[in-house]
């Protein structure tokens, strides 16, 4: 299974089009002999064309140099392509391909929706040293739609795919082709043209007239879309995708809580949806936390002088965390493969539709709900700082001394500020820069509290691993040393709390809430 970023351009050709000489264009020194290919591709989708609606294509192609299953998805301004070999009799997508699109298909069966036969004459554009800049394919295309009216069509087009060239090379090739009469294709793909009137209409922007309601539905939709888009990379083990997918679920949970009065749903339905999102967040969190902890502990060990690392500490930690991470990944994949996950995605679709329904949401309502979230976080932080069992000995504006109850309350305050930050993010389209500024200040405050919490969690894990090492008759000195270091990191983090708190509570960053 191989995946690559596909950078290509498609052109419509007039009847009298003649391929211009490309020698000298973008350092082209030679053009390879024509490679005559006969390609036969069957495209697959659900009955409702869920893949096509999301600009994703899945085909099984025979002939040419890359026969097999091809899955193409949007990737930035270009498209990524996953290729998997196909057996001679295989007519259903292999499991590894089906898993990559499950968040889109929602488990619905895939069926042929179009057949496209292409007579391709391909030539390579090469530099003097033999580097292939791009491939130019002159395609004569015959298509048959297998849905709706079953339209059959035939046309000619030119396709240029960048190989080892640069975007600047592609721009110069584009200029030469346009000068010869080629025009950028008005159709995004062969499949869209083959389906004709049955091709799904492109998605339009939010049609909600109320600015306040539009802010809510756009925010919820963006998080839902992020979950779906990041699903394939999260399944593949991409740490950044897992992190971003987790953030999207956190934003959804926060929005359900903060802006529940604006949701067109019962409290029970919202509570159930919140719990289901929390379940997915938890699965993602187990993987993410294990990844982060592995990197954090590796960096802590690397920072210690060799003489202070006594025994097989690095190997022991790597072994324990690897087992923990593997278990977490198995649970995540099982969750993503479950019907429960599909039901959650469908419920999120329903939520987007409901939130984007009729009815006006006044800007003052958004401000009121955001203000309530901010004040709740303020109260939790005040309660944490003033925890009775730990305030003895605190001096003026300095951070209070450590204590388990206080640490738990600080963690709750951190989560509350995260929710307040997301509320400010959501309100930014209607409140503008002041809301964005508050979101930034709350992020800084949240980061201080997060650094403190991370130190506590790391210290607890080091104590656990130290006890494990002791039980295995290994020297636990280094675990104790690192535990002490984390306690100090926690104190250093809290020393920054007063300043971060002052900056986040200044009137000029909160006036817009009034």
UniProtKB/TrEMBL annotation:
SMART domains listed in its UniProt record: CHAD, CYTH
Pfam entry (one): CHAD
CDD domains noted in UniProt: CYTH-like_Pase
Superkingdom of origin organism: Bacteria
SUPFAM superfamilies from the UniProt entry: CYTH-like phosphatases
Signal peptide start and end residues: none
Name of the protein in its database record: CYTH and CHAD domain-containing protein
UniProt source species: Dactylosporangium maewongense
């Amino acid at each position: 299974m191989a995946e690559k970023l596909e950078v290509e351009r498609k052109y419509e050709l007039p009847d009298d089009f003649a391929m211009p000489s490309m020698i000298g264009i973008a350092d082209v020194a030679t053009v390879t002999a024509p490679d005559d290919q006969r390609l036969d591709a069957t495209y697959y989708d659900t009955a409702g064309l869920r893949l096509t609606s999301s600009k994703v294509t899945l085909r099984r192609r025979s002939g040419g140099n890359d026969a097999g299953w091809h899955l193409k998805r949007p990737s930035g301004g270009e498209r990524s392509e996953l290729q998997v070999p196909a057996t001679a009799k295989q007519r259903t997508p292999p499991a590894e391909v089906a898993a990559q699109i499950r968040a889109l298909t929602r488990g619905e069966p895939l069926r042929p929706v179009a057949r496209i036969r292409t007579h391709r004459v391909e030539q390579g554009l090469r530099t003097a040293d033999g580097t292939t800049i791009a491939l130019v394919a002159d395609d004569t295309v015959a298509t048959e739609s297998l849905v709706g009216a079953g339209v059959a069509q035939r046309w000619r087009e030119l396709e240029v795919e960048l190989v080892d060239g640069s975007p600047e090379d592609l721009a110069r090739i584009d200029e030469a082709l346009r000068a010869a009469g080629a025009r950028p294709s008005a159709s995004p793909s062969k499949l869209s043209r083959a389906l004709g009137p049955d091709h799904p209409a492109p998605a339009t922007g939010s049609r909600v007239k109320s600015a306040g309601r539009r802010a809510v539905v756009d925010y919820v939709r963006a998080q839902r879309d992020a979950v779906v888009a990041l699903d394939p990379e999260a399944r593949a083990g991409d740490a950044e995708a897992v992190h971003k997918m987790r953030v999207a679920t956190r934003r959804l949970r926060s929005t359900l809580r903060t802006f529940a009065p604006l949701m067109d749903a019962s409290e029970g339905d919202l509570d159930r949806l919140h719990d289901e999102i929390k379940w997915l967040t938890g699965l993602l969190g187990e993987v993410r936390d294990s990844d982060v902890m592995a990197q954090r502990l590796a960096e802590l060990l690397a920072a210690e002088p060799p003489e202070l690392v006594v025994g097989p500490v690095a190997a022991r930690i790597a072994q324990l965390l690897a087992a923990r991470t593997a278990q977490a990944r198995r649970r995540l994949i099982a969750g993503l493969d479950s019907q429960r996950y599909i039901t959650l995605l469908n419920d999120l679709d329903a939520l987007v539709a409901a939130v984007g329904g009729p009815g006006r949401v006044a800007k003052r309502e958004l401000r009121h709900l955001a203000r309530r979230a901010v004040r709740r976080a303020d109260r939790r932080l005040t309660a944490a700082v003033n925890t009775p069992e730990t305030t003895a000995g605190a001096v003026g504006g300095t951070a209070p001394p450590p204590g388990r109850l206080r640490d738990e309350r600080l963690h709750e305050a951190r989560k509350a500020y995260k929710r307040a930050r997301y509320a400010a993010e959501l309100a930014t389209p209607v409140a503008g820069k002041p809301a964005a500024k508050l979101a930034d200040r709350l992020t800084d405050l949240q980061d201080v509290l997060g650094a403190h919490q991370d130190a506590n969690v790391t210290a607890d894990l080091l104590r656990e691993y130290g006890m494990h090492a002791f039980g295995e008759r290994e020297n636990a000195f280094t675990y104790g040393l690192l535990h002490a270091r984390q306690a100090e990191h926690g104190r250093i983090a809290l020393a920054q709390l007063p300043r971060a708190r002052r900056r986040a509570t200044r009137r000029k960053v909160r006036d817009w809430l009034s």
